[in-house]
Structure formats: structure tokens, C-alpha cells
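We give the chain.
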Amino acid sequence: MCKVLQIPRSVYYYEAKERRAEDSVVSDVIDIFYASRQNYGTRKIKVELKKRGLIVSRRRIGRIMQDQGLVSSYTIAQFKPHVKSCNESEQKNELNREFTQEQEMTAIVSDLTYVRVNQKWNYVCVFVDLFNREIVGFSTGPNKDALLVYRALASIKVDLNKIRLFHTDRGNEFKNKLIDDALKTFSIQRSLSMKGCPYDNAVAEATFKIIKTEFVKGRHFNSLEELTRELQDYVHWFNSIRIHGTLGYKSPIDYKQRHLKKIV
């Protein structure tokens, strides 16, 4: 064969040796990866390979892992926010961090967050009643826009005429003619956090921290429909069963019912 191809015999043995060496490295990388319970990344695999007498670069290990479909448990997709100009409205912070409200639906707060759905970012918007920390409205969608907010507002089942104040941060998603018209229709006063001050919307921020920890973390959603269905079930549990320290370790619904009994 070497004579026909007019190449030295030494080249054949060299290529065969290199191929065997490459196959050995691939096999070792796979072995180390699964022995680590699929936790090791390129850095730790490189250390383990060195213990076996193999000096392999992290780039090469990464290439092998990619070819073999090996993904470390610590390889988590990071959300990359797109920097946009904030809402420069002159609207003041009418809520002024008055997070304790004595009447149901007097003031509601809202915010948005992102959730990984089938390798893509989708978004969740919730409305929270400051009276009992109940999630009174929510929506999910593929885009972080005003329509997501509007659908969350439309999902609120109580009379919107009861709402006196609607507070959010200065995200542009909350500034839209569709939303402005809806608020005007129900005579709902607008309130905006100070620019760059998340503490002004602390209840909404805290609610999303709970959602991210209890509902999103460690979960995989295959579709937007699945996310919506599972979120609806979680919101029911959050409102009806989950106890809240700020409510004297009562659920939002239980807290509201006890309040109504006192009034009667």
C-alpha cells in the first residue's frame, strides 16, 4: 500500500500511533467525566489526566467534551442582559417604600424575570398585592415587552377599580400606551422607583427571588406551555399553602380571610 501511494512506511506507523493515542485520550476523558458524576469540567479533567501521565490542554479537552456531548453540571447558561435605556419619565415614587398596606389591592407592584425554556430565554411577569403578598396576576411569554405586562394585568381576577396605585421599576416594558390607557381607564395612579434603586421595588424583587429559588432552580421546561402550566400550579401553592414570615407565617389567602373576618 505504501509503495502504491508512494509514501514511506514510517508515515503509516506514525499515523496509526497518533490515532491510537487520540482514542486513548478520548476514552480517558469520558471515563473521568462519568467517574466524577458528570461534574468535572476541563480544568479538573486536565488534572486527572495528568495523574494518568497524560498532558492535555484544556482546549483539547473541551473539544473532546463537545464532540462527545459531555456537559458538566456546573456549565450553566448565563443570562446576558441587553442594555437598554430606562424609562426616563418624570413620574415620582408615589409608593415611597410603603410596603405595608392595610387594605386589599390598594397598591400592587410588578416586575419581570427570565426563565430558561428549551435552550432559549423566556420571561415571567407577576403582580403582587402589598396587602398580603399574594400573586394576583401573572403571565409568561417569549419576549420581555409591554404585551407581557398587559397580559399579567389582564389576568387579575378582582375588580381593577379597587387598585389605587401601581408601582414598578423604570423598565421600558412598563411604559407603553396600551398599559397607560388601561391604568387610565381604571383610574390607577402610577408610581416609579428612583433610577437605579432596586430597594424601591423590594417586595417584587423579593418575590422573584423566591420564585427563582423554589420554582425555577433545578427545573427544566421543554416548552412555554409547560412553563405556564407549572407556574400556574406554583402560584396556587404560593398563595394558598406557602406560609410567609412577613404575614405571621400564614399563607396570603389565609391572611386575607382572617383580615376579612375581623372586619365582619
In short: Residues 107-263 form a domain with the Nucleotidyltransferase; domain 5 fold (CATH 3.30.420.10). The radius of gyration is 28 Å. The mean pLDDT is 84.
